[in-house]
Amino acid sequence: MQEQIEVNRAPESDALASLGVAAAAEAIRKGEISSESYASALLQRARDYADLNSFITIDEEAVLEAARKADKAIASGVTAPLLGVPVAIKDSYLTEGLRSTIGLSTLDRFAPEHDADAVQAIKDGGGIVFGKNNLVEMSFGLTGHNEAYGQAKNPHNANYVSGGSSGGGGVSVAARLVPASLGGDTIGSIRVPASFCGVVGFKPTTGRWPRSGVAPISHTLDTTGVFARNVEDCIVIDRVVTRDETPDTRTHSDLKGVKLAYAPHQFLELVDPEVATQFKETIRQLRDAGANVVEVDLGKDFSGRALSATWNIFFRETKAAVEKFIRQNNVPTTFDEIVGGLKPGLKSVWDQFVLPNGQGYISDEIYNTALSVERAEIKRRYAQAFLSTGAEALILPTTPATAPMIGQEDKILLGGQEMSHLVLANNTIPASAAGLPGISLPIGLSDKGLPIGLELDGPYGRDRALLYVARRVEAVVGTLSARCRRPSNRSFKTERSLVPQP
After folding, report:
1. pLDDT digits (tens, 9 = 90+) for 91-119
2. The domain containing residue 299 runs over which residues?
3. How many C-beta atoms surround the C-beta of residue 209 within 10 A?
4. From the Swiss-Prot or TrEMBL record, what is one GO molecular function term (predicted)?
5. CA torsion sign, 368 to 369 to 370 to 376?
6. Closest CA to 172 of 66, 74, 57
7. What value does the mean pLDDT take over residues 428-456?
């Protein structure tokens, strides 16, 4: 039986930490709370729950100083959508003057000279960089494990994984350490942690959000995105990062007249029974709320095509993408040094699939076929499905199972067989292959108290429409709040940065 650790906190601090992006921005703007008091409450909570390993770096002095400046700006009449609101940043993003490790111990002292474009947009919108979230080394992984900086732990039960690669972001939002966190998603690195941690995770259409200054994997598949505790907060962040303040003219808040589609042959045949049951119950709830939920079949070879094409693109593009990132951003390392510093299991994968002399290196022919034939076919089938059904979104279980226990990541039981953690991205990969916008919403808990996620994928480029539909779905399925259970109460080294030690 896991012990639950209670942390003594003032009720006022808990109330402040519970504020989301939109709510906090409004309260700060109206003078109901100060940015400094809000930031202080979040910093205290980050200390209380440091053993969740959701952050690699927090510069507390810088956060408080930025909050004080925001309060002075508000007092002088300045307005901005995120003014005074702290936002966490995945540590694959470059942040000016704040160390950016990309999850590697070899970059432990690297403090970039400039911000990633998305970080600059947050700052331009008045937001405060709260800290750098833990991640899997080089964003290569789905469980949230980092050998140098520790395992990011699920706040619903710290014996379970957070998901990855943006695990720290999902944890920090679920545990109410921050109201939102910028993450990255190549095959599911936002949506998987969002599902496991019980928060909202939004992956925009590929290329819609800026990617400059973010450590890459694949120029074809990479997207930046966001974790938040509700869809409205994702909409706020989306407006800031895209610098598109187009107002919301939607007048409907219910689901009457909304058409949704689901593809059971592609997304339900290899799913844990609890996840399938909750998904079907969600369909019933949506129908009862007025939605027209129809079935669609994407083809018996759809999943296989999506998986093979995506992994071939993923591995083939990594080396060139990383080398370009190092060169363009003056990162003080080399590609060979990165490979040499990877944890053994990940280094073995890179040796086999990423390096040109590896046994599994993707040939030009296979790569070009994946791009121009297989990926094109996946995109065509999605487009046809939306056209034939008239659906505004395709719904599916975000992950085929709930979060596995730490140490049991490669013993996921599905269909009577033990499978590796790679199966966790089976449902998120197809939308990544097609570059579609996708968002994961929490829809309930398993018998073990672990969150279950619902993904909504929208037509290419229809991000705002997807977000507005997701907001209406969320009004039916609700949101979750983590209890932040922890196995121990360790102390952590705190200097200028708050750095959890493994």
Report:
1. 999 999 999 999 999 999 999 999 999 99
2. 11-246+255-477
3. 24
4. hydrolase activity
5. positive
6. 57
7. 98
